[in-house]
């Protein structure tokens, strides 16, 4: 089921979340997965480009979480998973991504804060920090032989991740197996941050 809307700046967050909750008969899981990267380096994209990345990557997850909170609070249980990035911890070696890195680092701060304040309502808030996965956002970059080789060398497991591998990590944070986990960030990076 799809509920259409624009998440930039959180504009349609409440409509989307409330629509999903109504269609599903409640809401106890939210995965904030929408995200964009810069089209150009910060020095050339200016403040507008920087603000757009933050609107989608940081403001929208906050808006979706606050829209989901009443549904989860009413049920006494909820799981929010924010999809961050290894670039919340380190700079990209391939291209300047100041807005992307800042938005994902901010998302980790948001994760910790919401976990601390909403835990008493039965709401757990965690994050995953993916390394390189084959996706729409990385397809062009991973198609370059020099980048693919550098990722293989830098990643302890020697390859990018599969979509199933990130999906399983997110699923863990949504399942009862993680009920005593909140405010945590799970690096799903094949060992990128270990090197």
SSE layout:
Elements (H helix, E strand, L loop, with lengths): L12 H12 L4 E4 L9 H34 L2 E6 L14 H21 L4 E8 L8 H4 L2 H10 L8 H12 L10 E4 L7
Parallel strand pairs: 1-2, 2-3, 3-4
Write structural notes for this entry.
The chain has helices at residues 13-24, 42-75, 98-118, 139-142, 145-154, 163-174, and strands at 29-32, 78-83, 123-130, 185-188. It is globular and about 50 Å long. A 4-stranded parallel β-sheet has the order 1-2-3-4, with helices on both faces. The chain has 195 residues and is of the alpha/beta class. 48% of the residues lie in helices and 11% in strands. The longest helix has 34 residues, at 42-75.
Strand content: 5-15%
As a whole number of angstroms, the C-alpha radius of gyration is 17 Å
What is the terminal-to-terminal distance? 40 Å
Shape: globular
The number of E-state strands comes to 4
Name the descriptors.
195 residues, alpha/beta, 4-stranded parallel sheet, 6 helices, 4 strands, 48% helix
Short description:
The protein has helices spanning 13-24, 42-75, 98-118, 139-142, 145-154, 163-174; strands spanning 29-32, 78-83, 123-130, 185-188.
